[in-house]
Specification:
The chain is mainly β and 160 residues long. It is elongated, with a radius of gyration of 19 Å. The mean pLDDT is 94. It has 2 domains: 87 residues, Chitinase A, domain 3 (Roll); 48 residues, Thrombin, subunit H (Beta Barrel), CATH 2.40.10.330. 8% of the residues lie in helices and 39% in strands.
Amino acid sequence: MQITKHKVVKIHYTLTDDDGEVIDSSEGGEPLEYLHGVGGIIPGLERVLEGKKAGDQFKLHVEPEDAYGDHDEDLLHEVDRSQFEGIDDLELGMQFQVDTDDGPIVVTVIEITDETVTVDGNHELAGIPLNFEVTVGDVRDATKEEIEHGHAHGEGCHEH
């Protein structure tokens, strides 16, 4: 069965940066399972998976614009330290969900002073070219419920 819109796909992958450093991998674990054609994975990878079938293997280089986008300086914000009142152990790298006019985003603390905290709303992989080694596992038709919900449910029962 070929990968097309509304197929549930399982892939094993290793993701590296251009220096060969492993960023993420499914090796030794469960494959990534997703609903194809609904934007559940980065566009550059989804586009290349289109038409593949179980057992196919490939390597892929994805530029930032087809992954998590370029690093956007407009997503760096310096806020008053009082916005973090009640958080005694504030540390670099901590992440918080923030409600914005465009919906919720996750921000990462990148600088802390006595008066301010600088947060970054970019995805941690924004601006980074990505390299994938992929093996396609199972490909199946999505259920009606998976299509309605916009994601794969995996094995067993699924509750929202």
